[in-house]
Amino acid sequence: xxxxxxxxxxxxxxxxxxxxxxxxxxxxxxxxxxxxxxxxxxxxxxxxxxxxxxxxxxxxxxxxxxxxxxxxxxxxxxxxxxxxxxxxxxxxxxxxxxxxxxxxxxx
Length: 107
Known about the structure:
Elements: H1 9-27, E1 33-35, H2 43-52, E2 56-62, E3 74-76, H3 85-93, H4 96-106
Parallel strand pairs: 1-2, 2-3
Helix pairs in contact: 1-2
C-alpha cells in the first residue's frame, strides 16, 4: 500500500478508483468501505474516495464518532482481542478513549 495523502491525481485514480474496480472484478461484489493506508489522507484523497463511490472510509485517528462525522474520514477505536467487556464498554460509550489518547500524545 502507498500513502495516498501525497499522491498526485493520476496516482490517486490508479490507487483508489482502479484498485476498487480491480478488487470488485476479482471478488464479483461491490466494495463499500475503504481504509486509508497507514491512516493518512488528504482532502484530495478523500475527494477521490468519494468519487470512487465508497460509502465509508476509516482513518487511524483514535476517537469516537459523533453526529456530523464525515463518513469518509471515520476515526477508530482500537479494541484488542484481549480486551475485557468493561473496558470495551468504556472505550465505546464514554470519552475514555479520547482522554486516554490525549494523555498518550502529551508524553
